[in-house]
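User: Here's a chain of 67 residues. Predict its fold as tokens.
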Amino acid sequence: MTEESDASTPRQRVVRVTGSRRARLTPVPGSDPEPESRPAEVPPRSRPKSAKGPNDDQLIQDVPPHY
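Assistant: Prediction complete.
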């Protein structure tokens, strides 16, 4: 190992979460655990305003075989 472990430096700890299968880590010392900013609002996707194709109605009515 190239790095010696120093007992005086604070480290992250593993914390058990009751009722959960996964544990979580405590925040890194000196870091801000809150996210910097929220993602920009993404506009909802809309269908193109093009003309319908010859089989669009049939494709919309079809049910996949695994249903």
